[in-house]
Design brief:
It is a single chain. The protein is α/β, with parallel strands linked by helices and about 300 residues long. The chain is built from ten helices and six strands; from the N terminus they run H-H-E-E-E-H-E-E-E-H-H-H-H-H-H-H. The protein has a six-stranded mixed sheet, with helices on one face.
Amino acid sequence: MVKVNKKYKDRLFRMVFNRKEELLSLYNAVSHSEYTNPEDLEIHTLDDVIYMKMKNDLAFLIDDVLNLWEHRSTWNPNMPVRGAFYIVEEYRKYIEQKGLNLYGSRLITLPIPQFYVFYNGLKEEPDNVELKLSNAFSTLHPELEPCMEFKAVMVNINRGHNKSLMEQCSALREYAEFVARIREWMKAGADLLEAIGEVIDSCIRDGILAEFLSSHRVEVFEVLLTEYDEQRHIASEKEASREEGMQAGIRKGHREAAINLFERGLCIKDIAVICKETYCLIAEWYEEWKISKGVSR
């Protein structure tokens, strides 16, 4: 049975693909493989804890391939950096569990890493994008070859994208449809609770994630409310940051204007009125200006 994570709210994507059957189906679709036994999957997700303040959604080993999967509802070019942190921790655990000797004379064998980011954000993106860790490296020394690389493949799982992939994995296609329906309801002005309830009912009627939604209706409500609250919080923080930046730009302009007026000999009181700033702030800028110019008056 799928249970809501007690240490942090789980994600709907992870809930849907928490069962090995759905996980194997999606793995076969993205890797063009034909595995049939879900027990071939060995789950390696990082113990439901927050690792370095980051959460990896799914990690599993199959046929000596270590897969790291992330779900993202926002575009983030730094996913290879995050993935590099994940893979280091996964390899540390693997080496410890297998009792491998890093200091011996024999070369150890590690599973091949694959990192996929499943994206269903609102920003329009191609079906597939390869992101590289080296994109984040400084360009100050182009003559040097980086000693490492790490790649993330971003897969767009919004409705209408990656048609072939969706055809091969019904759970992914139905997940994309479920999310798209909620967005349509909210775009039409529906309340979030109303949207979730109506979409759950319509999807069950239409055979879209029907068994999953019927069994986990309460958990889905809880998870989606948390996810959308987080998205609204992020949007609010971005808007606050944007406004803060605008205010900083305005204040910078006022400071430059005040300096120009200092040089013209206007008094602090008049400059405060002209620049629409407090007398104390203008006086502070005046003292800084005097020091920079060596002015004694």
